[in-house]
Specification:
Distance between the termini: 70 Å
Number of strands: 5
Largest sheet: 5 strands, antiparallel
Shape: globular
Radius of gyration: 20 Å
């Protein structure tokens, strides 16, 4: 069989962000645990997902990845002065590998034992969230409709 046309392999392109979603835009989450909550969009991650936060101190929504299909952008914008999200990537949200427990231990242990490394990672995430909240809450107070 002779082929005349060679199809070029397409490399996956990053997801294009909707025009109405810009850093600092207040979004409404439509699905999941935090549906109906208003969140602040921070940036788009390499995976195409949106990095958003409540802030956690205001409405309980932590730093989180959300698909843009499941949010509605509003016209309200919040300044992101003092918010540094450059070091947050998809790896920040990677789950740690759980140790395979033996069957006997699974029957009697209800809680998974966390290693010191995992505890340090959780503490770092909490500190990161607190830093984000402090900077964002200051900026939210400057917006008239969000006081």
């Amino acid at each position: 069989v002779q082929t005349f046309f060679k199809r070029a392999n397409r490399t996956p392109q990053p997801t294009r962000l909707r025009k109405s979603i810009t850093p600092g835009t207040v979004l409404i989450v439509l699905s999941g645990r935090f549906r109906g909550r208003r969140v602040v969009f921070i940036k788009q991650l390499d995976s195409g997902l949106l990095l958003v936060t409540g802030p956690y101190k205001v409405n309980g929504v932590p730093l989180r990845r959300v698909n843009q299909a499941y949010v509605i952008p509003t016209s309200t914008k919040v300044s992101l002065d003092g918010v540094d999200a450059s070091d947050i990537t998809d790896a920040f949200f990677a789950r740690s590998k759980q140790q395979a427990a033996t069957k006997d231990n699974q029957l009697f242990e209800t809680e998974a034992q966390l290693s010191d490394e995992e505890k340090a990672k959780i503490k770092a995430k909490r500190d990161r969230q607190a830093k984000f909240d402090a900077a964002l809450i200051k900026n939210i107070g400057k917006v008239d409709m969000l006081k």
